[in-house]
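ingest -> validate -> predict -> emit
validate: passed (alphabet ok, no gaps, 126 aa)
predict: started
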Amino acid sequence: MRILFLPFFIVFLLIKTTPFLLILSIKKLLLYRSSIVLFLILGVVLIVLFVSLPTPSKKSPNDIRRADLTKQKTQLENLLKKQPTHRDILLNLAKINQALENEQQALDYKSQALKLDPNGDVFQEK
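emit:
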C-alpha cells in the first residue's frame, strides 16, 4: 500500500518545491539551491528505503505460543532419547502434547511415566 503513494508523493514534492527552486536560482543563491536539491535527493532516498522495509510480521499470540511449545517439545524429545526412563521428561512431554491438542501422544507419555513410577505423587488423585 505504501508503494502506491510513493509516485504521488514525489510528484507532489516536485510541484511544491520547483517554484521555490526557480526563485532561488533566479536570485543566484546557489548555496541554498544546492542544499535544497541535496535535501530532496536525501528525502527521496529515505522514502525509497522506508518503502522497501519489510512489514513486521503479525503473528497472533497463539501462533507464538504454539511455536514455543513445539520448540520445547523437540528439545524434550531429544533429551528423552538420551534418558528414556526419565519420568519428569515424559510428564512434561505429556503436558506439552496436551497443550498442542495431541491427546493420544499425551496419553502415551503419561502411561509410560506411570509404568516407570506407579506410586508417584503426580498420579495421586487429590
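The chain has a mean pLDDT of 78.
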